[in-house]
Each structure stands twice: as C-alpha cells, then as structure tokens.
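Lab notebook, bench 4. The sequencing result for the construct came back, and we need a structural model before the next group meeting so we can plan mutations. Quick request posted to the team channel:

Model the 3D structure of this chain.
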Amino acid sequence: MVKNIVFDFGGVLLTGDDNWLFSKETKNLLKVDNEDLNKAWDFAWPDARSGKINEDEFFRKFLQSLTGSFGSDLVLKLKSIYRKQADGLDTLGLLPKLKRNYKIFALTNVAKDWLLFKVNKFKLNNFFDLIISSCNEGVAKPNKEIFLSLIKKAKINPGESVFIDNFERNIESARELGFQTILFENKEQMVKEMRNLGIEVS
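Done. Here's the predicted structure in token form:
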C-alpha cells in the first residue's frame, strides 16, 4: 500500500534548473553555441547543487568558464533570466489533491538560492511534508546517500513509497533501495502509472 509519494522538482513539477540555459534571451546575451553553454554548465553546476557556492558564485564561475571573465551586470542579467524562465508544470496542480491521502516529499538536486526562490514563488511548503535537497545534504542524486537521508529524516518505508523522477539513473538508485518508481515522461503517463500502483488521483 502506497503511503508516501516522493517527487523530483525539475522536469517533473517545475521547469528544470537549466531551463534558462538555452533560452533565446540567454543566447542573445552571451552569443555562444549550445556546446559551450553545456560545458560551462557542467563546470559550474556540481558546486552549486552541492551547496558549496551560492547563486552569484555559480554565475561567475559559469561566465568565467564560458568567456574567461565575468561582469556583475552579466551576473544580474542571468539571474533575472533564470527567474523569468522558472515556471510550474501542469503536474503541480495534482499536489493539493494528493496531499489529502498521502504524505508528499521532494528529493531534488538544486542550488540553495534557487531552492529558496522556488519554495517562495510556488508556495511549496504548503504541499510538502519535507523537502530534501542536494544543496543542504551536500550530496546529489543518483548517490544513494541522499535517498538514505530522505528515508531517515522523513521516517518512511521505501516499500510504501513511490519515487517519481525524469532521469533513469535516479530511478535506478531508488529502485535498488526498495522504492516503487515512476520514470516521468509527461503528466498523462505519470497519472496512469500512479493509478496502476493504486494511488488515488482525482
């Protein structure tokens, strides 16, 4: 019997943290191609998601990798683009209904400033019993340590819990720890699989 539902944020309930990266506004501002943007992201993101650097430091590191330098004006512009691009997905509307019958948790790889921004913008504390984040735990999915932290802090039984994420590598870690899992593709597919697991979805 399912008692707990654990959601990823980016790509499942909200736009991904890299949603701003390939936006028209970012490309017009930086005038670089996707390959260079990806490299700069891969260089700066690990320290941000693990909580080692804040948002300003992330964008400075990102820009330094991309252009060899950075300016405070560019940092401010990128922060603004991130906030404009961040949005909720259609799945977000399911949370109030699910919360009536289940405990709802989040397990997410996210930077500290972005987590605070999302919690405030989307009023996430109204829906979640607990949010476990890579920036606060110092370890990111798919590392099993962050799943074990969720199990301990939320006091849940993985066998009574469903984990929903849009990356197979994260799903595999959860499954190996005994979670029931759903690899997210879209809202309709997720709802169908939730019902197959006996979850009541209005």
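The chain has two domains: 4-15+87-196, 24-85.
Will bring this to the meeting.
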